[in-house]
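task queued by scheduler; priority normal; single chain, no ligands, no partner chains; default sampling; output format set to structure tokens
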Amino acid sequence: MLKHVLIMSAAILSAFLAGAGVLAFRAATHSGGAMPFPSRAEAAVPPAEIHASTQAVAHHAGNAEVMKAADGHYWAEATVNGRHVRFLVDTGATAVALTLDDARRLSIDPARLNFDRSVSTASGKSRAAVVELDYVSVAGARVEHVPALVLEQGLETSLLGMTYLGRLSKFEATQSALILRP
């Protein structure tokens, strides 16, 4: 476990320093149409790999706060389409990424998805399907119509990435909390 935490910490630090996304994807086959998300590879930024506690949430003066967990990470207890999902907050992830189990809990049937995107994870390459979540809300910081990926394999926990975080008016990490401003 400590090995995974150290590897993940190094990957996140590398993503911040290099400006590369931790979760990168591209179309498996590109038919000339617009992709729902821009590919980091198309932006000439090499894709990075994901190297792979209870948290408290507060809501103060219009801001939501996700307290840093004992493991040093921010774990967000979110409401997605009316159901609970626990996310690892990952500012280096291009998109919100769901495990198959979380997708099923959200009534997304993996058998009906088109896994036509290629992603890199700590477990290696995987395939992903694009979905749109009606909304994601963390302690009142609600964003509607959130693009997300469902990963076929290689993801142990769902990631709260930039398709949610980037739509907030502001988010800020302090020594003790992540502050989300809707």
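post-processing summary
- The two ends are 34 Å apart (CA to CA).
- The chain has one domain: 2-181.
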